[in-house]
Amino acid sequence: MRNEIDQIFDDFGNGFWNRPFRSLARLERDFSKSISAPAVDVAESDKAYEITAELPGLDEKNIDIKVANGGLTIKGEKREETEEKKKDYYVSERRYGTFERYFTLPESVNADKIEATFKNGVLKVVLPKTEEAQKPAKTINVKAA
């Protein structure tokens, strides 16, 4: 009798405790199919800021860049190649899906002159500075009072 009761509790425990973790594993699998935010470099020169993003495997038609409300948004999508769906994979580590990166723009950016280029999986966004921001800093001499 005791073994039967132990079995009931074991069955209850296994069913109850394992179910949530199974759904978490499924969620992790689904999440891992999307691509994460790309690695970026942000640099500054006297005349401009430059954002460089690594976007291997993307097509420039699937990259969207918008400037609004004092920020720059880069969105993209890497689409899965449908021809390869017919294959049976043992391991598939390539990622497909969408990403989005947002950058708050400094007031010194001339938003009307922003340009972007895409070559060999690397996106470069050049954000020119306004004429006022390009002026050299003025040195103020301190005088004894």
Automatic annotation (TrEMBL):
It comes from the Bacteria. The keyword Membrane does not apply. Keywords: Stress response. The keyword GTP-binding does not apply. Residues 31-145 form the SHSP domain. CDD domains: ACD_sHsps-like (cd06464). PANTHER family: HEAT-SHOCK PROTEIN 20 FAMILY MEMBER. Belongs to the small heat shock protein (HSP20) family. This is HspC2 heat shock protein. It comes from Bradyrhizobium diazoefficiens.
